[in-house]
Write a structure and sequence with these properties.
It is a single chain. With 622 residues, this protein is of the alpha/beta class. It folds into two domains: 2-147, Cobalamin-binding domain (Rossmann fold), CATH 3.40.50.280; 165-506, Alpha-Beta Horseshoe (pyruvate-formate lyase- activating enzyme), CATH 3.80.30.20. 43% of the residues lie in helices and 16% in strands. Strands 2-1-3-4-5-6-7 form a seven-stranded mixed sheet, with helices on both faces. Helix 9 (212-226) packs parallel to helix 10, helix 9 (212-226) crosses helix 20 and helix 10 (243-259) runs parallel beside helix 11 (278-287). The longest helix is centred in the C-terminal third of the chain and has 44 residues, at 482-525.
Length: 622
């Protein structure tokens, strides 16, 4: 069968890559097409005409309405074509989605590689016999939602083929970059997290790791044959709660990387603060660590307990201090709004930021994702509002509710929104970490130094403005209290003015980065004059560039990886047509599909990697 696999492609889509390679290994055809915004709808519909079935990656709950509208458009175009959903949200809300959205024929539950291959083996009988395949939600007698037997989680994830990486090579600050998976699942059980909810769904181990030697085989192939020098690990737990196990695993990685002849690489990874120890950080630095996403989430124990984040504030303090000591950029998020938040817990969060302002960071609210323990708790306490598509909750402390009511609009554009300043800063921080790691010279050193000073100012200023609002809201009984109105007016005047200044600074930093990076890219891609300084990765970029002439793909400048806090949405309104920053990248296409009318740029440039905290999704049209 011929499958079209559809999903976002803002930082590459490993889940679809694994589905595609699994189908290909089984003798089927698979094409991945980007649906990073509704602007991609026409392209998806066009490419779907040659497919026997379409798979939709409904991982992000906030984007579910867009994918469901796409499903309806696919059915309107060709009613007999199977449309199959999958991903976190689809799995956690499968029965509701099948009940309410007839354009979805089936939902693949949990991980889908084996399930999708078995569905493909059914050929034209796919819909009629889907109930015979384990791990599928379907419509049974009378159209009611039904499920086949749950498929156990795949214990040996080394048995999976490498993900399909057809399409553009990706660059971050001119450095060829690949996104990699070394493990699946999570060792945590946080109440707010849809990831742990998904992995509790299937029988078998919730957390599985590939052997380091197999991971490095994949890295070495990318390094030597595609010129990749930066590896972004999408593991939720690159480290685990055992210093001994971490030491042993990292030693295996380090030895395998050296044996594979890989020199001067960069690594981006995620971990919890309680799992980072000095020895592991030293080893990671030797391996090429340039950035961590640290699961801090709150600087108050009240905040951590409210979302079921089983760690301490001491863990967070120690981990960030360790990163500061070793010069490692560590992005973190403050879930400053949560069901049990108080004025005191919010001030503690902001005090934490003031102690650790040198890192890229953002603020967000704990969301009620479908099926999570936090959603169930709010429902059982009668505090949840909305439907499974989008719920919000009542704060226990009315003063916190006041901060949210005032702050959601006041700080839109700075802390959250479609074009928020902190999100841009996070991505720029990644680009600067890449520049600092791979490029040399006084121009780079000055840029890195200037950005660090600007980011420090931005974070301290934002925390100070936020603190003023929290104190003002906590000191009154009504939203229209004169003292609060005066405080908000004062904060707004300063916030608007400084936000404009920060946007100008962002543009200047981008220009300076481009002035360093673009000559190197053009030297590699377009045979332009040799730049005055050739960075250490230039030969790798030449390797990546040769793929264009060999039919091996294009190159795509990625916006970078960011855990960003997108816009709060408290009232029914159209969902945004595009993800923040998505407009700066061009979706990739498959070189051998024959349907693309116009080739993309010869590379895709990422703006930087940011770990995204999806936006509040309180209400949704049904």
């Amino acid at each position: 069968m011929r499958f079209l696999l559809v999903g976002p492609d803002l930082e590459s889509n490993l889940s679809l890559g694994y589905l595609a390679s699994s189908l290909t290994r089984a003798g089927h055809a698979a094409e991945i097409v980007a649906f990073s915004s509704t602007a991609d709808t026409a392209d998806v519909l066009s490419r779907s005409r040659a497919a026997d079935a379409v798979g939709l990656s409904l991982s992000f709950q906030v984007r579910a309405p867009e994918f469901l509208e796409l499903a309806a458009a696919l059915k309107a175009q060709r009613a007999e074509q199977p449309v199959i959903g999958g991903g976190h949200f689809a799995s956690c809300a499968a029965d509701d989605l099948l009940r309410d959205y007839p354009a979805l024929d089936l939902i693949v539950l949990h991980e889908g590689e084996q399930t999708l291959v078995e569905l493909a083996e059914l050929g034209p009988d796919l819909l009629a016999r889907a109930h015979t395949v384990d791990g599928v939600a379907f419509r049974g007698a009378g159209g009611a939602p039904a499920r086949s037997a749950l498929r156990p989680a795949l214990a040996d994830i080394d048995s999976l083929p490498p993900p399909d990486r057809s399409g553009p090579a990706r660059l971050v600050a001119g450095v060829p970059t690949a996104y990699v998976m070394g493990s699946r699942g999570c060792v945590r059980r946080c109440d707010y997290c849809c990831i742990t909810t998904l992995h509790r769904m299937a029988p078998g181990p919730r957390f599985r790791r590939r052997t380091p030697s197999r991971v490095v085989e994949e890295l070495a192939e990318l390094y030597h044959r595609r010129g990749v020098r930066q590896f972004v690990f999408h593991d939720d737990n690159f480290l685990v709660p055992s210093a001994r196990q971490n030491a042993e695993r990292l030693a295996e990685f380090e030895q395998a990387i050296e044996a594979a002849g890989m020199r001067d690489i960069g690594i981006v990874m995620k971990c919890g603060p309680q799992d980072l120890d000095p020895a592991s950080l030293r080893t990671l630095k030797r391996m090429g660590l340039l950035r961590i996403f640290m699961g801090i989430e709150s600087g108050s124990q009240c905040g951590l307990d409210s979302i079921g984040r089983r760690q301490t504030t001491a863990d967070a303090e120690r981990a960030l201090s360790l990163c500061e000591e070793h010069g490692v950029s560590s992005q973190y998020t403050m879930i400053i709004f949560n069901p049990e938040a108080t004025i005191e817990s919010m001030l503690a969060d902001l005090d934490f930021v003031r102690r650790h302002p040198a890192h890229p960071l953002n603020y967000c609210r704990a969301e009620l994702y479908a099926g999570t323990p936090l959603e169930q708790r709010m429902l059982s306490e009668g505090r949840a509002r909305g439907s499974y598509m989008a719920r919000t909750y009542s704060y226990r402390d009315e003063r916190v509710a006041r901060v949210w009511r005032v702050g959601r609009e006041l700080f839109a554009g700075r802390c959250w929104g479609r074009d928020e300043v902190l999100g841009h800063a996070i991505r720029l921080d990644h680009q600067l970490a890449v520049l600092n790691h791979f490029y040399d010279g006084p121009v780079v050193e000055a840029l890195v130094r200037d950005f660090a000073a600007w980011q420090l100012e931005l974070n301290l200023q934002t925390a100070a403005l936020f603190r003023e609002l929290v104190i003002a809201c906590g000191s009154v009984e009504r939203d229209d209290a004169p003292s609060l109105l005066d405080a908000v007016a004062s904060i707004r005047t300063r916030e608007v003015a400084t936000r404009a200044e920060h946007r100008e600074a962002i543009c200047r930093f981008r220009e300076r980065i481009g002035g360093i990076v673009e000559p190197v890219i053009q030297y590699a891609v377009a045979d332009r004059p040799r730049p005055s300084r050739i960075p250490r990765h230039a030969m790798a970029l030449l390797v990546a560039a040769t793929l264009i002439g060999c039919g091996g793909g294009q190159m795509h400048p990625d916006p970078g990886v960011a855990e960003a806090a997108p816009p709060p949405i408290d009232e029914p309104e159209p969902f945004p047509g595009e993800h923040p920053d998505a407009g700066t990248t061009q979706p990739p296409f498959q070189d051998d599909d024959g349907v693309a009318e116009m080739a993309p740029e010869p590379y895709i440039e990422d703006d930087g990697v940011a770990e995204a905290a999806p936006p509040p999704i309180d209400t949704q049209k049904r």
